[in-house]
Amino acid sequence: MSSVYIEALDASYSYGKKGFSLVPGTLRLERGKIVFLKGKNGSGKSTWMKLLAGIFKPSQGSIRIDGCDTKRMSLGQIGEKLGYLWQNPQVQLFMETVFQEMTFVDELKGLSKAESEKKAEVWLECFGLSHLKKASVYRLSGGEKQRLALAVILSQGAEYLMLDEPSKNLDEKARKNLVELLKNLRNEKQIGMLIVSHDEAFEQELADETILVEEGKLIEKI
User: Fold this and answer.
1) Could you tell me where the DSSP H helices lie in 3-72?
2) What are phi and psi of 128, to 5 degrees?
3) CB-neighbour burial class of residue 16 (10 A; exposed 0-12, middle 13-18, buried 19+)
4) Nearest to 22, CA basis, from 32, 30, 31, 10
5) Exposure string (b/e) for 70-85, b if CB count within 10 Å is 16 or more?
6) The predicted structure's pLDDT at residue 121
7) Is 72 helix (H, G, I), strand (E, B) or coil?
8) pLDDT one-digit tens code per residue, 17-29
9) What is the pLDDT of residues 183-199, one digit of tens each?
10) End-to-end CA, the chain
11) How far is the C-alpha of 156 from the C-alpha of 135, rounded, in Å?
12) In DSSP terms, which residues pair with 4 in a beta bridge?
């Protein structure tokens, strides 16, 4: 099995003839490795991440996720391989309670109620959320919402994570918990990650590699 999970081959994306365009680039992201994307606001970091995540389809070149060309994949197929955590995790939480959030996707897929609930218990325990399973999603702290969103993503089989400013607006305790969680996912489950962040201390604690983005161009690993 190849260690490369996401591969960009001379890939770029353009918002239109007069819009911002990424400079064509080649990049390989590996399992079990945490890579940070750095750059000024407007440099193209988030556009690159959406392109690599298959949310945007390349205007030029190709993006492959686990060997599959994203141009031939639906967002549903991509979502089974890769999890995307938005800056505000609330936008990807839909149910009233934590336990409902953990079970509804599996029940939609046809898993029995008993099986989905057993699976949910395991993941909630893994993410330290078991004591909150009856709690309203809307009453969770920012860190708890983040952990719940990650638990849902990983419970559906995602083998790679894309995280957009994950430490933003977290208090120190939640930030430390997040660092430990991401380290464990990398070290114990070989989950690869691409992280966009302006938090230099967060980067220093987690980064295996850092890539700079300048005016849409990927600069050599630093």
Assistant:
1) 45-52
2) 65, 35
3) exposed
4) 10
5) beebeeeebbebbbbb
6) 95
7) helix
8) 767 899 999 999 9
9) 999 999 999 999 999 99
10) 27
11) 22
12) 30
Separation of alpha carbons 175 and 169, rounded Å: 9
pTM of the predicted protein model: 0.88
Mind listing the pLDDT tens digit for each residue in 32-58?
999 999 999 999 999 999 999 999 999
Residues 6 or more apart whose CB falls under 8 angstroms from that of 196 comprise: 36, 37, 45, 46, 49, 163, 164, 165
The region that residue 202 occupies, defined by phi over 0 for left and psi between -120 and 50 for alpha, beta otherwise, is alpha
Closest CA to 27 of 45, 3, 7, 51: 7
Amino acid 190 reads Q
Tokens linked to 8: 């960009």
Tokens of 202: 């967060």
Query: 127-135 — which CB contacts under 8 Å span 24+ positions?
Result: 127/151, 127/181, 128/177, 129/98, 132/98, 133/97, 133/98, 133/99, 133/102, 134/97, 134/98, 134/99, 135/97, 135/98
Task: Please give the Cα distance from 154 to 163 (Å, whole number).
Answer: 13
Place of tokens 């114990």: 188
Write the CA distances from 209 to 4, 139, 192, 206, integer angstroms.
14, 36, 12, 9
